[in-house]
Amino acid sequence: MSKQKKRFFIILGIICVIVGLIGIFIPILPTTPFLLAAEFFFAKSSEKFQNWLFANKLFGPYLTKYKNGQGLPLKDKIITISLLWLTIGASIIFFIEIIWIEIFLILIALGVTTHLNRIKRYRPVFDQVLINDEPMTKAQLSDKA
Question: Which of 58, 91, 96, 144 has its CA 20 to 30 A from that of 9?
């Protein structure tokens, strides 16, 4: 890959990280797709930036769990969905007066909520035991007792 293409991918990766970071605070911008795009661009251009992304305290663990298919903690889902609806609801009530934009925002909120609900719930490994090679949570064990 040429140096120009590597630089271009690094710049695109940095832009995606910045937009993803903004998306943490503005629910209309989805954080995860931008972080995944940044990871793609960094994987193609810079191992250093890719390692930084996964080692980052703010979104490294989140991105790692999501990418590995481990899911999201229930607390994170509840906070994210609550903030999403609060922010979009406040925008519709106080700032937006055009009906088609209000409908569009509601559709975005429904889509993001559906996506978040479809992501499996992350359960830390220390909260599970293996019974006959099947993971079981403490709650499932107590139900069997």
Answer: 58
Rounded CA separation 91/22 (Å): 17
Which residues pair with residue 137 across a beta bridge?
128
What does the pLDDT profile of the chain (145 residues) look like in tens digits? Answer: 789 999 999 999 999 999 988 887 876 677 877 888 899 999 999 999 999 999 998 888 878 887 888 888 888 788 878 888 988 898 899 988 999 999 998 998 898 889 888 888 887 765 445 445 555 555 555 555 5
Distance CA(63)–CA(70), nearest Å, equals 10
**Cβ–Cβ < 8 Å for 32, 66:** yes
Helices (H) and strands (E) in the chain, counts: 7, 2
